[in-house]
Amino acid sequence: TVRTIAHNTVVVDGADQRRQGRGGDLYAFDAAGWVKLVDAGSQAYEQASLYRRACLLVDHGGGRGYLLDLFRVRGGRTHDYLFHGPRERGRSAGPALRPRPQGWHDLTDAGDAAAAEPWSMVFDLDDRVRFAVHALPEEGETAIVGDGWGERGSTSRERGARAMKVPYVVRRREGDPADSAFATVFDVSPASAPFVREVARIEPRS
């Protein structure tokens, strides 16, 4: 709540989450099967009638699996789903970014692009393991990428020139009111054999 933009969440109307009167609801929790689920929500923003997140950890055995993140928000005018990378550099397979003069909060070297098709960003954790984020955008979504503060922990926290910078990825949707359903897949797997090879958004059949 002190600095919402530093967390992997959704920022509504560019503001921090409120500190009081937010409550919280646990809609579902299941850790027994090969698909583990938690579905929860809160009144994090006064103007948001829906602020609900479901995370599904899908275990295929043998150290293979992925996390599906479904974040639904309704209310306000601007929704910014964001995550930041674990390393200073990532490889993007997505839309070509154009310079963004106004940036996004305090990000530096920011760029943006319309994002109509699924795209990915990959980080090499070491020589053997990679971390990949796959975005499945909705219609009218914009991708914003820039560098932001990335120090970890209370003892190593440094500000200024020595602070580590990491990529921040923002997926923006706007409306009056805004109504968003952000879908994202996170995958940690061997660099030589990525487990998630392709993602797609499929419309449900009636």
Report on the architecture of this protein.
With 206 residues, the chain is mainly beta. Helices cover 0% and strands 51% of the residues. The strands form two sheets. It has an eight-stranded antiparallel beta sheet with strand order 2-3-4-5-14-11-10-7, with no helix packed on it.
Q: TL;DR?
A:
The protein has about 210 residues and is mainly beta. The chain has no helices and 14 strands.
Distance between the termini: 40 Å
Contiguous low-pLDDT stretches (5 residues minimum) are 156-161
Strand order of the largest sheet: 2-3-4-5-14-11-10-7
Q: Note the beta-strand portion.
A: over 45%
* Structure annotation, total helices: 0
Give a short account of the largest sheet.
8 strands, antiparallel
Mean pLDDT across every amino acid position: 88
Radius of gyration: 17 Å
Task: Name the helix and strand elements from N-terminus to C-terminus, one letter apiece.
Answer: EEEEEEEEEEEEEE
Percent helix, as a range, is under 10%
Q: Which outline best applies?
A: globular
* Number of DSSP strand runs: 14
- State the secondary-structure class: mainly beta
